[in-house]
Design brief:
By secondary structure, this protein is an alpha/beta fold. It folds into two domains: 181 residues, FAD/NAD(P)-binding domain, CATH 3.50.50; 111 residues, FAD/NAD(P)-binding domain, CATH 3.50.50.60. 24% of the residues lie in helices and 28% in strands. Flavin-adenine dinucleotide binds next to helix 1, helix 4 and helix 7. This is NAD(P)/FAD-dependent oxidoreductase.
Length: 301
């Protein structure tokens, strides 16, 4: 069987793409190995009607909804190779199965590389987060940290100051703020600590203190940390699409990449805010764009 579309990645972007494709009677397989970056957290916020939902519960409900549509199925395995041969894409999974598809939607997300600070992974997703729009409300008005050792420090400090008046920015031994930025932050009551961090201290993921190499400590109850973002998926592939400066897949507003038949949506675009509702919206758009392309091909004279 030739699929109308192979959707790679089953987070909110891929799930919503598959839903719209299923409702459009398009033969679709959604491939997912269930390793989303938000697996470290138990609550997701900011999605109307879903505020506070457990991300795995959101996924379970979405998969249940997809099961109503006979043209959609889910393969719970990783895709490791995608090639275009003539006009069709060949999608190969880790188990060696190969599926042919007319169109591809990449919804594989990104993964973050956290700074090399001892115990940081214990706190990430529980009291240290990356996005204040996702998790700022839950830790509002507490003594918070922004941990950022690069150019993001100034921007993050300004944004996070919206949620607390007790904010310290930790640059982990680096001088990343200009004199003007120092002065401006101080004038708004934001403190700056440029010591090298030795460890994060706390129990069960809840931050209590930050300890420095000189053995001093500062009390903090949570905060935000700057991470590097990189593609979650690397394929052995003959696909050639353009990446943006951050390493995200570039698309137009219809989620089309510059390679014909290849669409991308959600975090994998590394462009703008990373949010469930935005990923889901882009997934819907990608599916509509796939439909538009298939309709054009059908009625081509
Ligand atoms: C700690 C934390 C808290 C967050 N909190 C919130 C919040 O409160 N509200 C909010 O809106 N957003 C939140 N986010 C962001 C949100 O999780 C992402 O924006 C959203 O998950 C992006 O959806 P996506 O579908 O693009 O990617 P993902 O959800 O990352 O899904 C990608 C899927 O593709 C799969 N995949 C990757 N490569 C392959 C492959 N080769 N083959 C098969 N499958 C593959 C992955 O395993 C994964 O299941 C948070 C993120 C983090 C890290």
């Amino acid at each position: 069987m030739i699929l109308d579309c192979a959707v790679i990645g089953g987070g909110p972007a891929g799930l919503n793409a598959a839903l719209v494709l299923g409702r459009s009677r398009r033969k679709t397989i959604l491939f997912d190995d269930n390793k989303p970056r938000n697996s470290v957290t138990s609550e997701s916020h900011g999605f109307i009607t879903r505020d506070g939902v457990n991300p795995q519960e959101l996924k379970r409900v979405a998969q249940e909804e997809l099961s109503r549509y006979p043209d959609v199925s889910i393969e719970k395995q990783r895709v490791h190779r995608i090639n275009k041969e003539n006009r069709l894409f060949q999608v190969e999974t880790e188990s060696g199965e190969v599926f042919s598809a007319k169109k591809i939607i990449l919804a594989t997300g990104f993964t973050e590389v956290l700074p090399d600070i001892p115990r940081v992974k214990e706190f990430y997703g529980k009291s240290l987060f990356s996005c204040p729009f996702c998790d700022g409300w839950e830790i509002r008005d507490r003594p918070l940290a922004v941990i950022a050792d690069d150019q993001k420090a100034f921007h993050m400090a300004k944004v996070v100051s919206n949620w607390t008046n007790d904010l310290i920015i930790f640059t982990n031994g680096n001088k990343v703020l200009s004199l003007e930025e120092h002065e401006l932050l101080k004038s708004k009551g934001i403190s700056i600590n440029e010591k090298k961090i030795a460890a994060l201290i706390g129990e069960e993921g809840m931050l209590e203190k930050i300890q420095f190499e000189d053995e001093t400590t500062v009390l903090r109850e949570g905060g935000f940390i700057a991470a590097e973002w990189k593609q979650a998926a690397t394929f052995h592939s003959s696909l050639e699409y353009t990446l943006n400066e951050q390493g995200g897949i570039e698309t137009d507003s219809w989620q089309r990449t510059n390679m014909e038949g290849v669409f991308a949506c959600g975090d994998t675009r590394i462009a703008g805010p990373s949010q469930l509702i935005i990923a889901a919206g882009e997934g819907s758009m990608a599916a509509i764009a796939v439909n538009a392309a298939l309709i054009e091909e059908k009625f081509k004279q």
